[in-house]
Backbone:
């Protein structure tokens, strides 16, 4: 249940304010009456409602209550007039009496309850019949809110307002427009939210794929449950063509006497004029005499009994469809299937006049007829099934194309630069007055606090998703534009007063009267988030527990700029798998990396202690300077860790980007340092250093190699490369190839693709050699006409590669970036995996293909050269040689028996030489030697 904040304190003739009157009379009162009647009759029903903070503000506002009462009185007078006007119209007169009685009934119901609906909904929740969710304070479209502070303020204000009204914290939230973006779950968790409703696509395309499809919720990485809506039940009720509301026996929404009457004469216009707007603009009165009848303009009088009978039939139909859907789901589920059917509340009664009747019939049938399905609230479901699969869901909404498209178009996107600037200004202003965050001020300090809190209200009201929605829909666009501008103007005027310490108490009081929602709005919610070090985030007891658990172990700290869920290149995967295997061996492994939105600053995951350090930098910082800021942050964090009593026994630095931290901690605390060079700048650029940036990176790589007691590389080619590039003695270099886990947890189902599949996966950059494969494609496809080339990955060369492949039509398919599950499915389907790299320090993709026993054709370069023995484990083509690559790919496809035999040999080599268990043991030995040498050196000095 939602309405934007459409209160206008100075006038009662706004068209938009009528939205509230219509929703009250046609939706909220009928739904409340229906639920109270069910409860009174002993029907054990369940429904879940969202009541947005803006709607709650309208419902409790005495001005809006009185105006609604006046609106009811006006409608009663109109209905009385209609009974007289239609005294000679036997087909319509009963309907006029029906409306008169209806309006009088709801007026009496409203007055009997003291004009207060919120306590009555609360009583139904306290009785266990309904569950009430909250929403963001002003229904802001959260994925388009820029700052975390602003998102937190929207949620904090909503939660506080909910507690004020319902005496408990909300368990669930209706994310505005069902719009989810990665990391929102972390904020929801901070405020005690257990679940949210999401679009079906969010779970449908989750990573990993949801085992229970859409018939069960999914747990996000931060432990908040995402309930996906059921598409089938949505279509049955919502569809404009096939949905129930379009039945010909139902009342026609668009034939209202506010539009039908007054055209034929001046006298007729005087009759209807008091019930339209003072501007003489026509509006709906709520009195409608016709049923839908047909898709054309011909309409017959409405028959309430026919409509009620049809609602009962369609309730039966809905139940039968859900039973059939449940029976299908039972075939593969390990629990009772859940089907979640969310709709806009205004559908019931307002757009679909018979909606409340249908809902009541549905509740009674499910209770009395003892069907195999029943109604349940999300909280009841979570109590019954507390465990759920965990998955990462992507950005989504229930809007057009399940995206932000509705709220981000050419005609409404202009609002966001202003909203984002206002967010940032609110954070600055709040920070400048942080000393007022407590309570009990008086005088000027109290006025300042009032101005700050009113600035919060104005900003939030400007953020309402309704304004952008209206601009997209093209309805009352001028009103939506003016509301956005007006709230932003008032916000900036308040901030100007605060900045210049020139507060106008009369104007502030006027603004408080004008926009008087959210009495608990608190500017402190916008205080800048001072992201603490992960050390500070640990409680003293947890820190001590970690120290106790690792007391008798060697504490190894790996430094890596990327680590899951941040996956930019192959370094993240290599570091995480090595760290996890060392942890499985019983070693204490810590990884210090950079923060990632949506990931905790500190966690123990897969046995590894992960420290994610935030990097503070300006928006225009280039990559090299960002790297320096990252090193400062990592260094500060490790210093705090050590000074707090934490142990660091070995440092393991991965690549040049962590050089400064590795050197500083090594020198300051005399901690042994091991380095892994995953690739060199010299090698990436074909044996040359052209730019100043490339020379700086090379210098840092050399410095890291110099500082380390041992340098680990992943292939024999890399051994020679680092020895030559950095003039290292051979005994300082250790060869430890990358590894892979042969046990595939989620056995991939092969992709459905016609013909034989040639598969490439990797970044679309020059050194990966995709252009060579495309040059070879005509020769390959000539000899193997049913072959298809599938290219997975993204990168700066994608556009050029697509142009290069344009002449090959559908024989070449670009599938873009793929998830691990998708990659596995393509690997399982491939007839040959091609790795045509020009430079490849190792070649982890080759191991992945070997794991799936897929034939390989690789370039005879770098680490690939040592992984594959030509003609034994696969074919090696000359690097950059089109004919060589084409011949070997063609051979693999034309002689599949030999290719499969080589793939089996490759799998055996993978098992014996590239398993992390064995490789981690070698790395552990390198750590031990480094510690021993450091100890010996320290002993010699003493």
Residues:
């Amino acid at each position: 249940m939602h309405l934007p904040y459409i209160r206008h304190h100075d006038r009662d003739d706004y068209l938009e304010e009528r939205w509230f009157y219509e929703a009250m009379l046609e939706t909220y009162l009928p739904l409340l009456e229906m639920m109270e009647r069910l409860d009174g009759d002993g029907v054990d029903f369940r429904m879940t409602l969202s009541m947005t903070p803006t709607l709650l503000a309208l419902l409790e506002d005495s001005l809006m209550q009185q105006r609604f009462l006046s609106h009811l009185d006006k409608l009663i007078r109109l209905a009385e007039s209609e009974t007289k006007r239609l005294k000679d119209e036997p087909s319509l007169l009963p309907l006029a009496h029906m409306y008169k009685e209806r309006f009088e009934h709801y007026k009496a119901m409203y007055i009997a309850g003291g004009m207060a609906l919120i306590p009555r909904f609360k009583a139904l929740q306290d009785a266990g019949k309904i569950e009430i969710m909250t929403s963001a304070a002003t229904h802001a479209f959260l994925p388009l809110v820029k700052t975390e502070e602003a998102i937190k303020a929207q949620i904090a204000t909503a939660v506080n307002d909910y507690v004020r009204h319902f005496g408990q914290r909300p368990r669930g939230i209706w994310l505005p427009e069902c719009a989810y973006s990665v990391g929102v779950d972390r904020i929801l968790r901070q405020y005690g939210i257990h679940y949210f409703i999401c679009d079906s696509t969010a779970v449908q395309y989750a990573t990993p794929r949801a085992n229970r499809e859409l018939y069960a919720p999914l747990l996000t990485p931060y432990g908040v449950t995402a309930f996906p809506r059921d598409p089938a039940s949505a279509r049955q009720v919502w569809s404009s063509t096939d949905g129930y509301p379009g039945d010909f026996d139902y009342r026609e929404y668009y034939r209202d006497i506010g539009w039908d009457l007054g055209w034929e004469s001046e006298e007729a216009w005087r009759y209807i004029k008091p019930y339209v707007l003072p501007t003489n603009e026509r509006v709906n009165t709520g009195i409608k005499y016709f049923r839908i009848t047909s898709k054309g303009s011909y309409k017959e009088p409405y028959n309430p009994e026919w409509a009620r009978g049809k609602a009962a039939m369609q309730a039966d139909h809905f139940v039968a469809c859900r039973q059939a859907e449940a029976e299908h789901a039972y075939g593969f589920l390990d629990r009772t299937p859940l089907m979640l059917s969310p709709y806009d509340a205004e559908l019931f009664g307002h757009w679909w006049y018979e909606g409340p009747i249908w809902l009541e019939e549905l509740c009674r049938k499910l209770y009395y007829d003892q069907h195999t399905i029943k109604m349940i609230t999300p909280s009841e479901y979570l109590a019954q099934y507390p465990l759920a699969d965990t998955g990462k869901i992507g950005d989504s909404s229930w809007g057009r194309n399940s995206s932000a498209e509705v709220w981000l178009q050419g005609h409404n996107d202009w609002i966001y630069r202003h909203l984002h600037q206002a967010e940032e200004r609110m954070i600055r202003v709040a920070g400048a007055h942080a000393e007022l965050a407590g309570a009990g001020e008086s005088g000027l300090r109290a006025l300042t606090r009032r101005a700050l809190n009113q600035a919060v209200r104005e900003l939030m009201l400007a953020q309402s998703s309704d304004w952008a929605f209206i601009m997209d829909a093209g309805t009352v666009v001028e009103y939506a534009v003016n509301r956005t501008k007006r709230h932003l103007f008032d916000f900036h005027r308040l901030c100007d007063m605060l900045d210049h310490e020139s507060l106008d108490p009369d104007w502030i009081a006027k603004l408080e009267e004008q926009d008087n929602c959210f009495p608990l709005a608190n500017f402190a919610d916008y205080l800048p988030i001072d992201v603490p070090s992960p050390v500070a985030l640990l409680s003293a007891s947890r820190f001590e527990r970690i120290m106790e658990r690792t007391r008798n172990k060697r504490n190894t700290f790996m430094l890596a700029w990327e680590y899951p869920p941040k996956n930019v290149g192959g370094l993240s995967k290599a570091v995480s798998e090595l760290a996890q295997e060392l942890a499985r061996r019983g070693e204490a492994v810590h990884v210090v990396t950079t923060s990632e939105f949506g990931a905790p600053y500190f966690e123990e995951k897969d046995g590894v202690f992960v420290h994610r350090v935030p990097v503070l930098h300006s928006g225009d910082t280039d990559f090299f300077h960002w790297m320096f800021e990252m090193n400062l942050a990592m260094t500060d964090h490790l210093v705090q860790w050590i000074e707090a009593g934490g142990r660091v026994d070995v440092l393991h630095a991965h690549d040049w980007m962590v050089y400064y931290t590795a050197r500083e901690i090594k020198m300051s605390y005399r901690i042994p340092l091991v380095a892994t060079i995953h690739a060199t700048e010299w090698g990436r650029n074909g044996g040359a250093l052209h730019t100043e940036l490339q020379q700086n990176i090379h210098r840092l790589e050399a410095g890291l190699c110099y500082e380390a007691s041992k340098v680990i590389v992943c292939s024999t080619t890399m051994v020679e490369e680092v020895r030559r590039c950095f003039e290292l003695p051979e005994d300082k270099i250790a060869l430890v190839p990358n590894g892979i886990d042969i046990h595939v947890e989620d056995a991939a189902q092969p992709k459905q693709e016609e013909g034989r599949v040639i598969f490439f996966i990797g970044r679309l950059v020059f050194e990966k050699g995709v252009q060579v494969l495309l040059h070879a494609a005509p020769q390959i496809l000539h000899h193997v006409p049913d072959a298809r080339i599938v290219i997975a990955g993204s990168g700066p060369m994608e556009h050029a590669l697509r142009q290069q492949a344009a002449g090959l039509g559908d024989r070449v398919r670009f599938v873009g970036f793929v998830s691990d599950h998708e990659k596995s499915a393509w690997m399982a389907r491939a007839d040959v995996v091609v790795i045509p790299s020009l430079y490849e320090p190792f070649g982890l993709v080759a191991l992945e293909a070997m794991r799936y026993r897929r034939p390989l054709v690789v370039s005879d370069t770098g680490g690939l050269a040592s992984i594959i023995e030509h003609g034994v484990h696969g074919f090696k083509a000359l690097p950059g040689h089109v004919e060589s690559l084409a011949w070997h790919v063609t051979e693999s496809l034309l002689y599949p028996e030999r290719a499969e035999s080589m793939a089996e040999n490759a799998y055996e080599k993978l098992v014996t030489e590239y398993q992390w268990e064995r490789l981690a043991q070698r790395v552990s030995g390198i750590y031990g030697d480094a510690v021993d040498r450091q100890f010996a050196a320290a002993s010699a000095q003493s």
Summary: The longest helix spans residues 304-330. Residues 408-526 form a domain with the immunoglobulin/albumin-binding domain-like fold (CATH 1.20.1430.10). The two ends are 75 Å apart (CA to CA).
